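About this split. The held-out portion is used to measure sequence recovery: a designer receives only the C-alpha cells and must propose an amino acid at every position. Recovery is the fraction of positions where the proposal matches the reference. Here is one held-out target exactly as it appears in the evaluation file.
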C-alpha cells in the first residue's frame, strides 16, 4: 500500500516543508537563545496559517447562515483574534504605527485565496456526495 500517491503529494510536501522549516528555526532559536525578525516572521506565518485553517474548519457551525454571511463572520472573527493578539503583544513590545494595518493585510490576502479554494472544494465535495446519495436512492428504488 502506498501512503504517498499522486493525490496527496502536494499536501505531503507542504507538511514536510513546514515541519522541517519550523524545526530548523526552533533549533536556531534554542541554540542562539535569540529570536531574529526572520525567525519571528516564520513563527507568525505559522500561527496565522493555523488561525486561518481553524477558522475555516468551523464552517459547519455557521451553516444556518448564507455562504456569504458565513465567510464574513469567519473573517471578522479571525481579524478580531489577530487584533486582540496584537494589542496584547503591544504591552510587551513596540508595535509599528502601521502594524495593525499590515497584519490585517498580511492575513487577509492569503485568507481570501484559501477561503475561495476551501469553499469551492467543499461545494464540489457536497455535489459529489449528493450524486452518490441519488445513485443509492435510485438503486434502492429498482430493487
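Reference sequence for scoring:
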Amino acid at each position: 500500500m502506498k501512503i504517498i500517491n499522486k493525490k496527496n503529494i502536494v499536501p505531503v510536501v507542504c507538511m514536510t516543508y513546514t515541519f522541517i522549516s519550523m524545526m530548523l528555526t526552533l533549533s536556531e532559536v534554542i541554540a542562539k537563545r535569540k529570536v531574529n525578525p526572520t525567525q519571528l516572521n516564520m513563527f507568525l506565518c505559522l500561527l496565522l496559517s493555523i488561525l486561518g485553517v481553524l477558522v475555516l474548519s468551523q464552517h459547519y457551525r455557521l451553516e444556518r447562515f448564507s455562504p456569504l454571511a458565513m465567510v464574513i463572520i469567519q473573517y471578522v472573527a479571525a481579524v478580531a483574534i489577530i487584533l486582540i493578539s496584537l494589542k496584547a503583544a503591544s504591552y510587551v513590545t513596540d508595535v509599528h504605527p502601521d502594524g495593525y494595518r499590515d497584519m490585517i493585510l498580511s492575513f487577509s490576502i492569503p485568507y481570501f485565496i484559501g477561503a475561495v479554494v476551501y469553499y469551492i472544494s467543499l461545494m464540489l465535495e457536497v455535489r459529489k456526495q449528493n450524486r452518490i446519495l441519488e445513485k443509492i436512492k435510485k438503486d434502492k428504488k429498482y430493487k
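Annotator remark: The chain has a mean pLDDT of 89.
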